[in-house]
Amino acid sequence: MVVLPDVRGLHHFYKELAQRFAEAGIDAVAIDYFSRTAGMGTRDESFDFMSHVPKTTAEGIAADTAAAIAYLKTKDGGAVKSLFTVGFCFGGSNSWNQSAMQPGLNGAIGFYGRPERSLPHISKMKAPLLLLVAGNDAATPQEAFFDFDRRLSEASVSHEMQIYEGAPHSFFDRTFEQWKDACDDAWRRILAFVKKDS
């Protein structure tokens, strides 16, 4: 599993999430979008991520994902046979985009991404998608996801979409305690998706 963080970059939550995948028997690595422009360092609350976001490119993120995939295929990375991405917000749509950019990907999972960032890639998408949608997402209206769902169906892209009614943007990482049931369900769906498409 390649973990694509939200817009903050390699925040501590995503390091812990990679560990959680490992504890579930899934080798995982979390990438840092900003090491190209900010160097190595801590991505805590004081990190000025917004000055680095405009410097990221789809090609750079795809290259970083490809490097993570290459590592996971090595003995040190677990010598994995099936490969998935999971992303959040900024990373959600970047995760879905890997369906079009990474040959041999088994699946791409995204939480509350921005569908408009993925629309240009639909025609090249090969790996199945899992869309985990916050029903009360202030950043992206549900209509955008319904449109994305329709376009994926029209393009015959295998996908599943789950809407968590009332859940806010970032419910899985920032407000998980208040949305425990939704988070538990999303985690079960991720594990089932990985098992089914491995």
Q: How does this structure look, described?
A:
By secondary structure, this protein is an alpha/beta fold. 38% of the residues lie in helices and 17% in strands. The chain is built from six helices and six strands; from the N terminus they run E-H-E-H-H-E-H-E-E-H-E-H. It has helices at 12-23, 35-38, 58-73, 90-101, 142-154, 180-197, and strands at residues 2-4, 29-30, 84-88, 107-111, 129-136, 159-168. A six-stranded parallel beta sheet has the order 2-1-3-4-5-6, sandwiched between helices. Strand 5, helix 5 (142-154) and strand 6 (159-168) form a beta-alpha-beta unit.
What do the pLDDT scores average to? 93
Helix and strand run: EHEHHEHEEHEH
What is the spatial order of strands in the main beta sheet?
Answer: 2-1-3-4-5-6
Low-confidence stretches: none
Structural class: alpha/beta
User: Gap between N and C termini, in Å?
Assistant: 11 Å
Secondary structure: helix percent: 25-40%
Percentage of residues in DSSP E strands: 15-25%
How many DSSP-defined strands? 6
Q: Which outline best applies?
A: globular
| Major beta sheet summary | 6 strands, parallel
Q: What is the count of DSSP helices, taking H or I runs of 4+ residues?
A: 6
Alpha-carbon Rg, integer: 16 Å
